[in-house]
């Protein structure tokens, strides 16, 4: 009885750990990254701004002194196409697209872009054109 | 009939008091850990402007799993080591130790196995062969499996929680092998091991000189300090 209870508890922990919690929403993160770049490519700044995380939107507007819709397409975020790899851990994700790397976080309203136009730096955080404060 | 049933229930509770109380305390502590952990993670989310997690999301997250698993593995390692080391090592004067000079596995007669098994000995103690060999080490085997399972859970869940942090810091996630070599994994592991080793070591030594009247973990209050393997 005791052995079986302990074994069941350990099994439950392993299953949860193996899943990393609730199955991560890879599709949602990938779609949000794709939508962000599609909106930029189509010149739909309002849609791109709607996909930015609150802190990232605020940082962009504070640093430029202008509304997101008028500046988001002038930041030099490289054009990007199909996602190549998607990593999701907890409420955070990194989507590597052909042309750009985007970091996202999950909010109540879905996945939002935390940083975009990112380039890796050795042993340091990515250097991103747009990111939260 | 009803009074017989209630007597049986009373007897069951009385006969299993230790297991039931520790089981209940475990559930309460886990529940407390879950609520306070959720509050902490949501406080961090506020700081970063991220979304809150629900109670269910938190208890099924890698953050909660790694915090539970890292403690479980160290507890089972502690008892695993204690069970094994006390076969050969002694502590003079400790009720936790065998008598000095009595270290080792013991003879079949002393262990009541095979042809020395008694009528009410467990079936696998009487059986002989591989069944008796396995049963002779079943406690360590199960404790060892739980230890390894919990440590593995710590590794897998710890990597997931670590990578979530990495991504929120705009850094690369690490592979399982990379996390196995990461300071985070070993710091979580060793900080738990050191406290368990301290607790079990001090129990073995302090019980030489100190007493708790009535506890089987202590010697009788009047037992001399150098008397070994005596329980109160």
Short account of what is shown:
By secondary structure, chain A is of the alpha+beta class. In chain A, 41% of the residues lie in helices and 31% in strands.
What does this structure look like?
The complex is a heterodimer of chains A (133) and B (232). Chain A has five helices and five strands; from the N terminus they run αααααβββββ. In chain A, a hairpin with a 2-residue loop joins strand 2 and strand 3. The model of chain A has no long low-confidence stretch (mean pLDDT 87). Chain A has a single domain, classed as Nuclear Transport Factor 2, Chain: A (Roll). Chain A is globular and about 60 Å long. With 133 residues, chain A is an alpha+beta fold. The relative contact order of chain A is 0.18. Chain A is 41% helix and 31% strand. In chain B, 23% of the residues are buried. Chain B has two domains: 1-60; 68-100 and 141-232, no CATH class. Chain B is mostly helical. The A-B interface holds A 2-3, 6-7, 10-11, 13-14, 16-22, 53-55, 87, 89-94, 103, 105-108, 114-115, 118, 120, 124-126, 128, 131-132 and B 19, 48-53, 57, 60-66, 68-69, 72, 142, 145-146, 149-150, 152-154, 156-157, 160-161, 163-164, 166-173.
């Amino acid at each position: 009885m005791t052995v079986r209870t302990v074994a069941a508890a350990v099994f439950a922990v392993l299953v949860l750990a193996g899943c990393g919690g609730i199955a991560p929403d890879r599709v949602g993160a990938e779609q949000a990254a794709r939508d962000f770049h599609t909106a930029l490519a189509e010149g739909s700044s309002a849609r791109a701004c709607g996909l930015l995380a609150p802190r990232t939107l605020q940082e962009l507007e504070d640093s430029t002194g202008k509304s997101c819709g008028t500046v988001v397409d002038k930041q030099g975020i490289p054009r990007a196409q199909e996602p190549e790899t998607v990593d999701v851990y907890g409420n955070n994700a990194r989507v590597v697209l052909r042309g750009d790397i985007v970091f996202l976080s999950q909010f109540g309203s879905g996945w939002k872009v935390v940083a975009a136009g990112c380039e890796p730096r050795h042993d340091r955080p990515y250097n991103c054109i747009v990111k939260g404060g | 009939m009803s009074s017989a049933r209630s007597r049986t229930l009373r007897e069951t509770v009385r006969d299993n008091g230790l297991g039931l109380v520790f089981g209940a305390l475990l559930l309460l502590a886990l529940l407390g850990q879950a609520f306070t952990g959720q509050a902490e993670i949501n406080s961090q989310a506020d700081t970063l402007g991220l979304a809150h997690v629900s109670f269910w999301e938190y208890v099924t997250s890698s953050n909660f799993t790694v915090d539970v698993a890292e403690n479980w593995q160290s507890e089972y390692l502690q008892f695993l080591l204690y069970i094994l080391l006390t076969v050969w090592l002694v502590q003079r004067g400790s009720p936790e130790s065998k008598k000095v000079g009595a270290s080792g596995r013991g003879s079949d007669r002393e262990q009541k196995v095979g042809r020395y098994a008694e009528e009410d000995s467990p079936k696998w103690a009487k059986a002989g062969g591989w069944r008796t060999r396995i049963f002779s080490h079943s406690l360590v085997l199960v404790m060892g499996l739980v230890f390894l399972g919990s440590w593995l859970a710590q590794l897998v869940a710890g990597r997931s929680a670590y990578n979530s942090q990495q991504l929120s810091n705009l850094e690369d996630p690490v592979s399982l092998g990379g996390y196995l070599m990461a300071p985070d994994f070993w710091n979580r592991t060793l900080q738990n091991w050191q406290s368990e080793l301290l607790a079990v070591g001090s129990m073995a030594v302090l019980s030489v000189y100190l007493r708790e009247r009535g506890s089987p973990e202590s010697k009788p209050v009047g037992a001399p300090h150098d008397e070994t393997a005596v329980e109160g």
